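User: Please predict structures.

Assistant: First:
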Amino acid sequence: MAIIYLYLLSHFGYDCFYKQNPKGFSQQKKNTEDEQKLKSTLEQFAKIKGPKILVHGGGKSATTWSKKLGLTPKIIEGRRVTDLATLDVVTMVYAGLYNKKIVSILQAIPCNALGLTGADLNLIQSHKRVFKDIDYGFAGDIDFVETTILQQLLNNDVTPVFCAITHDKNGHLLNTNADTIASELAVALAHFFKTTLKFCFEKNGVLKNPEDDNSIIEKISFKDFQKYKHAGIISEGMIPKMDNAFFALKNKVEKVFICGSKAIHHQSGTLIQL
């Protein structure tokens, strides 16, 4: 079984890895609670037997860095609007800082991880989104996933770690929603494996009350999703997660969960159903 996990590092900031002082950033690790949570999560991920893929974002850190560089981040319905300057920032954060840090932690566990963008080995090819009402800038919509090379990596005990950057095969990088990358990978590999997709984030699942971590909605159908969205229970960044969850289920992915990082080994959180 190919188990594809999406673990968004949205609640781990840059300070999880480095600390700031009046002279700038030092490369001395901070022994912070967030760093320990990250390591613990990756240790649990590494224990999963069989082929697996990790996909990550880094949106909050990209927002922090954008502000440091004098840029004003713009988010619409949970998706980042990416101009050229923002594209440089998200590439630096996603493909550089976060991706290589995750790979280094996994290698130390050990887990034979390989950090990737969609441009590497032409694994994920996209086109610049054609906008109707909203111009998302250099945002990518996925056209193609190279499954032959992915299968070779998985069959040789390599664990791909994808960041949220793809390319158009014309020399342009594109910021691509990490939820979408995870669902497209799951759908592409569902032709060859029984595939489970998990969207893991800082909450324990989809919550009826955002202030109550125990108010988990155990199962959500598409009809439920429409009802909760209309009521404002599901909003902002959760909407693209749900959209991608239903897309995956409609395209042969066996199971989809939205859950907390502690549920990597367990079928807990919110089960998404058609």
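Second:
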Amino acid sequence: MKMRSKFLIGLLSCSFALSFAQEGKVTNHIYEGNEDVQKEAYIKAEKSYRKALSLAPEKATALYNLGNTHFLDKKYDEASQRFFQTQKFASSKEDKHRAFHNIGNVYMQKKEYQKAVEAYKNALRNNPSDEETRYNYALAKELLEKEKPPEEQEQDNKKDQQDKDQEDEKEKDQDEEGDKENKDEQDKEKEGDEGDESKDEGEPKNEGDQKKDQKPNEGENKPEEKKQPPRQGQLSPQQVQSLLDAMNNQEKKVQDKVNAKKVKGVPVRGKKDW
């Protein structure tokens, strides 16, 4: 079974104030314990961490590394206790995440998969993006499902199917409600358009629209035909010439009269032109 563990050897923040001298001693004991862990000298490492905790009982770093030492030495109950203390006194989300992750690892070793799932969940609440925790969480869930008897698995499957059916039915109802609202809105718009058309039919049209819609009556506004002058009868060339001469003589007589009125003294009878 492949499982990824977190074994951080480092300094976490202290939750209470220490004097500079005490802090230095605590740090030295933790450093010595870390060196012993690298050499797999777990008993010596445990002593060093306990010395650090005697000076700073709530030192999250010492608690966490002591828990790791117990885990490597397969003392899972002691390891679980130290990790619980670590998450209690840790001052950052990342420190809590590491503690819960390793609590999950303890339960995985003890094959208590339900508790492991819960521990990994708590770890992910503090750091949702950690890939190792996500992997171990998925593995714990898979092992938990395999561990269940067939009857219980069937019940879980039925419950999952019921939940899915309820969710699908809920989505279907929401879709139908949305479709109904859209249809009602479309009907309102259609009624509004029909009302506008009825209103337009009942209202008198503008004079311009009336003229546009009216068709001209036959014979109305029709341009008058220009009356052609009566045609004269056909005249011979001699008659035309005689008529012209007569017209000229009349014009000459009229002109002579006009000229005579302009001359002072006794008028002189003019010579006839014909």
